[in-house]
Amino acid sequence: MNRRYGVTLLELMIVILLMAIVAGLVLPSSQPTVHEQLRAAANFVASELELAKSLAVSYNSNYTVTVDKSTNRLALRHTGTNTVLHSLPQELITPESPDATVRIIDLTKFRDTLGDVEIVAAAELGTVMRAESKIEFGPEGMPTSGLGFIIWLKTGKEASTRYVTVIVDGKTGEVTRGPSDAIPPPSGLISGK
């Protein structure tokens, strides 16, 4: 019996075509969608707020998160009266932190995961909404101001711009993430502090 162990050109073309189809299905899905990027960024920001709240409760003191739109960063620091707590636990210090008293989270360092998500506004939610760049959590895990706090994140340009919000309840300190198709912030907040 005389068997051939080679492959024909047709068989080779079929294998290449199947590989191209599989690659076409897999590669686009490996990139996160805009909604996934916004959700990931909102989860990231919410986690930082939850961390500040947790530290405030655990150490029975005050911790503040500062939102810096211009650098796309969040800064967490102890703002209570016990100066021993000014130095954060070593495991919380990031490479961007200038020293042990502040934890800096730079959202631009996570472009692979978050894409071009940026912080566009932050506000305190009282009887009127006003631009505010800081929220301080007290020992009970609630904002010391007693007011809510909201952060808007966005990605995309012009018609394809999408927003997501992260909200802190002023009475309970609960941190929630809004949908990835939230409305933009009022224009007065975008140019605010």
Task: Write a brief caption for the model.
With 193 residues, the protein is an alpha+beta fold. 29% of the residues lie in helices and 26% in strands.
Architecture overview:
By secondary structure, the protein is an alpha+beta fold. It has a single domain (33-190), classed as minor pseudopilin epsh fold. The chain is built from 4 helices and 9 strands; from the N terminus they run ααβββαββββββα. The chain has helices at 9-30, 34-59, 111-114, 187-190, and strands at residues 63-68, 73-78, 102-106, 118-125, 129-131, 134-137, 148-155, 162-168, 175-177. The strands form 2 sheets. It has a 5-stranded antiparallel beta sheet with strand order 5-4-7-8-9. A hairpin with a 3-residue loop joins β4 (118-125) and β5. It is elongated.
Across the major sheet, the strand order is 5-4-7-8-9
N-to-C SSE series?
HHEEEHEEEEEEH
**Biggest sheet, open or closed, and with what strands and sense?**
5 strands, antiparallel
| Domain count | 1
Share of β-strand residues: 25-35%
Q: What average pLDDT do the residues reach?
A: 87
Question: How far do the termini sit from each other?
Answer: 85 Å
Helix content: 25-40%
Characteristic terms for this protein:
about 190 residues; alpha+beta; minor pseudopilin epsh fold; four-stranded antiparallel β-sheet; 9 strands; about 30% helix; about 25% strand; elongated
